[in-house]
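Whiteboard transcription, Tuesday session. T.W. wrote the structure tokens on the left side:
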């Protein structure tokens, strides 16, 4: 039996340490990993918990991230509670197996510490890896700070293991800005955390020799469509379970999570939509602009998958102009978050103006002043009843300001 660990009411943890503690408390059976910056401390810490007898699980060191996810899928299919962590290039190497995990409906948990994707090589945070996994069939939840990284990791097990879902779950946090930034975190006691997550309930596990099952069968045109349609429906239907788990977590801790987090949106005329640690920056900018008479608000999707189309539509229904921030280079297109938000707003009778800002690539600083500038440009759009800037802009790039897609809304 693993030893009990006493925790203080408030701990000073960074995002990585917070996740590793959540994995310990959830009593993971297997963590298979190949470390990569900036997610390394998560699996490194878990390995130390195994070595020091604090957990009863297994830490499996493999030769690559592809092998890490492959081992995790095998362990989950065998009937274990499984987790791992990765970033950037490691995530890209995992992508082939991410589709296997979701298609096999194994409920493992992956922490993605978001980092720029090479080339050029960069170890700082942006959302290129997050967006690369958006079609892989996983639930994707985003943490904005260390406390949320801890809380949402515990929630992830409960969501993915629910029999109405049975899908793998990613929990995202920004590389270095969250993963390596120490903040106050209020963890649960070990017993409380495990009771919330609950005992793992294997389902059609491969090691049950009394009942033969097949994983990863070949289907071709006769049944492949039906499998993917059911998987797609399960992912959309997981929204109800996510809401239930968040409600249960609030009852336990008082900390409330929603699939879309709205801030000062009750009377907002302009808004920013953002993900990750930048959410706290733009909230502060909106507060300052309120003092200047600009009714600004912030909308932050907590779930990137299943994407909360109806909730986004409701949150932005009454604003005049919206800026969608993408912390990833879209390479010949509009930003991924911009496209999702735009599609959510498409059926509104009075659609707001929607513009796309590319920012913070490779860890480039994103300031409160930049956020205020963006919101002021949205106010100019609202006042002019037209888009007064290019529809897509790169903000914070050195040299001349880059703008794309100059066509105004007709």
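and on the right, the sequence the group agreed on:
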């Amino acid at each position: 039996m693993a030893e009990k660990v006493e925790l203080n009411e408030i701990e000073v943890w960074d995002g990585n340490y917070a996740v590793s503690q959540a994995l310990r408390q959830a009593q993971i059976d297997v963590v298979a990993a190949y470390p990569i910056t900036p997610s390394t401390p998560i699996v490194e810490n878990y390995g130390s918990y195994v070595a020091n007898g604090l957990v009863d699980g297994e830490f499996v060191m493999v030769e690559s991230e592809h092998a890490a996810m492959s081992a995790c899928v095998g362990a989950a299919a065998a009937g274990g509670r499984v987790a791992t962590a990765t970033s950037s290039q490691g995530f890209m190497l995992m992508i082939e197996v991410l589709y296997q995990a979701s298609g096999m409906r194994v409920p493992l948990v992956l922490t993605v510490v978001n980092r720029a994707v090479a080339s050029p090589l960069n170890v700082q945070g942006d959302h290129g890896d997050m967006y690369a996994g958006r079609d892989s069939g996983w639930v994707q939840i985003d943490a904005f700070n260390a406390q949320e990284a801890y809380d949402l990791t515990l929630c992830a097990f409960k969501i993915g293991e629910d029999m109405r879902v049975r899908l793998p779950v990613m929990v995202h946090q920004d590389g270095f800005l969250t993963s390596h930034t120490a903040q106050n975190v209020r963890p649960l006691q070990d017993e409380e955390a495990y009771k919330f997550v609950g005992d793992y309930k294997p389902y059609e596990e491969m090691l049950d020799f009394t009942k033969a099952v097949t994983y990863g069968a070949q289907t071709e045109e006769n049944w492949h469509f039906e499998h993917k349609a059911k998987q797609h429906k399960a992912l959309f239907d997981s929204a109800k379970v996510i809401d239930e788990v968040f409600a249960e977590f609030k009852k336990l801790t008082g900390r409330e999570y929603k699939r879309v987090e709205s801030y000062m949106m009750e009377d907002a005329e302009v808004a920013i939509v953002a993900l990750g640690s930048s959410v706290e920056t733009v909230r502060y900018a909106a507060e300052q602009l309120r003092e200047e008479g600009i009714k600004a608000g912030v909308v932050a999707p907590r779930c990137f998958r299943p994407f909360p189309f109806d909730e986004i539509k409701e949150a932005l229904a009454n604003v005049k102009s919206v800026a969608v921030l993408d912390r990833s280079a879209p390479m010949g297109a509009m930003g991924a978050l911009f496209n999702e938000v735009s599609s959510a707003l498409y059926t509104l009778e009075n659609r707001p103006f929607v513009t796309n800002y590319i920012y913070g690539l490779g860890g480039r600083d994103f300031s409160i002043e930049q956020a205020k500038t963006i919101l002021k440009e949205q106010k100019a759009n609202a006042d002019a009843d037209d888009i007064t800037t290019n529809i897509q802009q790169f903000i914070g790039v050195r040299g001349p300001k880059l703008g794309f897609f100059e066509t105004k809304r007709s």
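Someone added at the bottom: The chain has two domains: 11-253, 260-404.
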